[in-house]
Design goal:
This protein is α+β, with helices and mostly antiparallel strands and about 280 residues long. The protein has twelve helices and seven strands. The strands form two sheets. A five-stranded antiparallel sheet has the order 1-5-4-3-2. A two-stranded antiparallel sheet has the order 6-7. Strand 6 and strand 7 form a beta hairpin. The protein starts with a strand and ends with a helix. The structure holds a DNA duplex (13 and 12 nucleotides).
DNA sequence: TGCCAGGCTTCAC
DNA sequence: GTGAAGCATGGC
């Protein structure tokens, strides 16, 4: 079963490389194809770079129920792009280079653990560690064609596993405590999915968790709770804000979706970091 | 090889 | 409330 649809402002490669998720992987054999997992669902997404046509390998029901929401396909990203300040040359370029990015609606639990791991860490290593965690402790599945994949481990599964020596470094104690507290229901992430909960209430609750500070809290809010006004400030965002915004990003101007603008900037910074490194290598 | 990474906790002040 | 040290470890 297969679904072929045309999408605007959707680029699976940009999404995979935008640093908001760590489990979308390029298929090693199928051209222009990416392997995606969320909760207990697996899908292969195929798109020729620059083309609007996108093929989802899942059945139509899963596309509608699961992946449509995951990729935020009801979101009007052209509206966000049109809102960019014309005089903001930096943001205009960043948006034009990452116009296929969408803010994924990831599972809140997975986002919380993933971004806890991400602190003071590099993206290749984050991906590797999360993959190992999934393979070791997550529920495994096999597709009809033999593809094997694993769910992100639940809190209970993580409590059963050994979290040392899988590359977590000093963060293992944060994950261990979080998993135990979620398992014992002393910490709950679901209540923050309620729209009546304000962003600052969610942020303060997240920051009260051992191992979560302002940056990780905002990542969880943006990528796991789809609170689009959250702006995570990591070393790259801080660099961009210092160089182009005199130390203060105009969140007010982009009220309601400033986190989307943040993502265009983060992606731009990542892309140009790579370009600079390649230049330096010759 | 040494510096850096989608930072946080702890402690001094 | 602010500032600085310490943290594990792989990527480059």
């Amino acid at each position: 079963m297969e679904n072929k649809i045309e999408l605007n402002n959707f680029d699976i490669e940009q999404i995979a490389n935008s640093g908001q998720c760590f489990r979308i992987k390029r298929h090693p054999e199928k051209e222009n194809t990416w392997k995606c997992v969320t909760k207990a669902h697996y899908c292969e997404v195929t798109q020729v770079p620059g083309e609007k046509e996108v093929v989802f390998s899942c059945d139509p029901d899963d596309l509608k129920r699961v992946w449509w929401k995951y990729f935020d396909l009801d979101g009007n990203y052209q509206k966000y792009i049109n809102a960019v300040d014309e005089e903001d040359e930096f943001l205009r370029v960043a948006v034009s280079e990452g116009s296929g990015i969408r803010i994924l609606k990831q599972d809140a639990w997975e986002a919380t653990v993933s971004f806890m791991i991400s602190q003071n860490n590099n993206i290749p290593r984050i991906k590797k560690t999360i993959e190992l965690m999934c393979v070791l402790y997550g529920t495994r599945h096999e597709e009809e064609d033999g593809t094997i994949w694993a769910e992100f481990p639940t809190a209970t599964q993580l409590c059963r596993g050994n979290l040392e020596n899988i590359g977590l470094g000093y963060r293992d104690k944060y994950i261990k405590m979080l998993a135990e507290n979620v398992k014992n229901r002393e910490i709950s992430l679901r209540w923050m999915e309620n729209k009546d909960v304000t962003d600052s209430e969610a942020e303060n609750y997240l920051k009260s968790i051992y191992g979560i500070g302002p940056k990780v809290a905002n990542c969880i809010m943006l990528f796991g709770l789809h609170r689009l006004d959250s702006v995570p400030k990591d070393t790259w965002m801080n660099k961009a804000i210092a160089e182009h915004y005199n130390g203060k990003f105009p969140t007010k101007r982009y009220e309601g979706f400033s986190g989307v603008m943040q993502q265009y900037i983060f992606y731009y910074m990542q892309q140009h970091k790579q370009i600079e490194e390649e230049k330096n290598r010759g």
